[in-house]
Design a protein that fits this description.
Layout: E1 4-5, E2 11-12, E3 30-31, E4 35-39, H1 42-53, H2 73-85, E5 90-96, E6 102-112, E7 117-125, H3 133-149, E8 154-160, H4 164-173, E9 176-187, E10 190-200, H5 201-215, H6 230-236
Parallel strand pairs: 7-8
Antiparallel strand pairs: 1-2, 3-4, 4-5, 5-6, 6-7, 8-10, 9-10
């Protein structure tokens, strides 16, 4: 129960005082210690992204995405052009800090300014970005943009319920599992039951503190090995 009732004794949701629609995300630049988030430029990014994606021995990283892996640099350029033309999803390139090259993409999508809700999705990491500090920092930078800069109340993660890797990533990043929407969509001529996860604004301070502690250079050995896992750090926070 919320503790709030109307004149008829019916329970009501908690008040959201002085609420106003949030700004829409923009094609902005988000800069971190290990990576940079910026708008996709097909001419600039196609070669680097295609080469990075082709480091994977096969296309299994694309099984649960709506597209298949591009088979040529020209096809990659066309793929990126379509991403760059979209405003929802609003796609970003993830630029690795040392090389200054694009090594993956991600999007803010299903953007609902009136309710302060959006989703992170279409996360397409190359082998150069997976299991890296830059890969984790990219998710942190996008969350920070949504909560701190834009003032959104809810940040969602959705994936095929069979996508074990995506579900594990959501849990690692601090999302709460909310359930499975059965037969939610059809893609690639098959059914998708969609697993839903979220972080809400009152949880963000703890999630943010864990990210910042994990990303600190002091959390890594000279070899690059982490000293404490992200989930472990978050569990220790009040």
């Amino acid at each position: 129960m919320s503790g709030h009732e109307n004149a008829y004794g019916q329970p009501l949701g908690a008040p959201v005082a002085n609420w106003s629609p949030r700004p829409r995300p923009q094609r902005t630049v988000l800069t971190g210690r290990y990576c940079r988030i910026q708008s996709i430029d097909p001419e600039r990014d196609a070669r680097a992204l295609f080469d990075a994606y082709m480091l994977a021995p096969d296309g299994r990283d694309w099984t649960y995405l709506f597209q298949e892996r591009p088979t040529s640099r020209a096809a990659c350029r066309d793929y990126l052009a379509a991403l760059a033309a979209s405003s929802d999803p609003l796609h970003y390139a993830i630029i690795e800090g040392a090389s200054k090259l694009a090594v993956g993409t991600a999007a803010l999508m299903r953007i609902e300014p009136i309710h302060g809700v959006l989703e992170v999705g279409s996360i397409t990491y190359s082998p150069l970005l997976k299991r890296s500090r830059a890969g984790t920092e990219a998710m942190y930078l996008m969350m920070r943009y949504a909560f701190d800069d834009l003032g959104y109340r809810r940040y969602e993660w959705k994936c095929d319920s069979l996508n074990v890797a995506s579900r594990a990533a959501a849990t690692r990043f601090g999302f709460h599992f909310e359930g499975v929407f059965r037969q939610a969509i059809v893609y690639k001529e098959r059914n998708r039951d969609t697993a839903w996860y979220s972080i809400i604004d009152r949880e963000w301070r703890r999630v943010r503190a864990a990210f910042e502690a994990w990303l600190s250079p002091e959390n890594f050995e000279a070899s690059g090995q982490q000293r404490r896992a992200l989930a472990a750090i978050r569990a220790e926070l009040p």
